[in-house]
Amino acid sequence: MPELSDYVTDVVHEPTQTEGDGFDLTVAEVFEVVGPGRIDFGGGELEPATTVAHDAEKRDPDDDYEWWELGAGQYLLAFNESLTGEATVTVQPRTELLERGATHPTLCVAELPRVPLSVGGAGLKLKENARVSTIVAADS
Question: Which DSSP helix (H) or strand (E) runs through 125?
Fold first, then answer.
């Protein structure tokens, strides 16, 4: 039986991402939706929302990675990882994300889209490459 890691490419650090149950996914970029998209019945008028990258900053000039400071609201997360397309996987938010007042929907996907992230009233400080989601199952 294949391992979940058999379906994931562009992995940041596999030993850490496979420590618990499932395979953890890491955040590469955070986007803000700044203009509406369009969805119609037949798809002929389908248009993406306008997005811009949310600024990230190093806490210290010597840091290797940047942090996003997110206020309460909706964002889109892009993952570092990609899927091979050989399976449909179930992706859910990690407990660490949920316990800090943020969440995203659980999805069954064959490729990783940008995922809507909801951040609660106190906001969230999110570090580049943070593990935010977990693949918990795969159907090949």
Answer: strand 124-127
